[in-house]
Design a protein that fits this description.
Thiol Ester Dehydrase, Chain A; single chain; five-stranded antiparallel sheet; 3 helices; alpha+beta
Length: about 150
């Protein structure tokens, strides 16, 4: 790859990452792959969850502290479109956006891209809410940090 091509790829990555509120870099570990040599479909949900937790922490929402107060952030729906597989050793990044969709619900729009050439791997939409220990929906201090 020439210097010009590398510069163009970096610019394309920065532009694409700019569409997200939060970006994390990852690398596929060999034990995350199935017998076909690709990342098992369930592993992608682990990647998405880790990115959501990091994102919330960076926004000042500590889900562990909320849980200690009897407020639990829960996933109520996950939609994933698988576009292309990842393999052991692949470098990739995960972009996340967070939106409030009602008084009590929020949605994370998340995408994974292979770092090389920003190949789209998955697009996901994860809907969540907050519940008290009795299982009733509840608003909490800090919910307004969600756009």
């Amino acid at each position: 790859m020439t210097d010009v091509q590398a510069s163009e790829e970096r610019l394309a990555t920065e532009t694409l990452q700019g569409e997200y509120e939060h970006v994390l870099d990852f690398q596929v570990r060999d034990y995350e792959c199935d017998l076909q040599g690709i990342v098992n479909n369930a592993v992608y949900q682990n990647y998405l969850e880790h990115a959501r937790h990091q994102f919330l922490i960076e926004k000042g929402l500590d889900f562990v502290a909320l849980s200690a107060q009897g407020i639990n952030l829960v996933v109520i729906r996950v939609e994933i479109d698988y576009k292309s597989p990842l393999r052991a050793g692949d470098l990739f990044w995960l972009g996340s956006r967070l939106k409030k969709i009602s008084r009590l619900k929020f949605v994370f729009e998340q995408s994974i891209y292979r770092s090389e050439k920003n190949v789209s791997i998955i697009n996901a939409k994860v809907t969540g809410t907050s519940m008290n220990n009795a299982g009733r929906p509840v608003r909490f201090k800090g919910f307004d940090l969600i756009e």
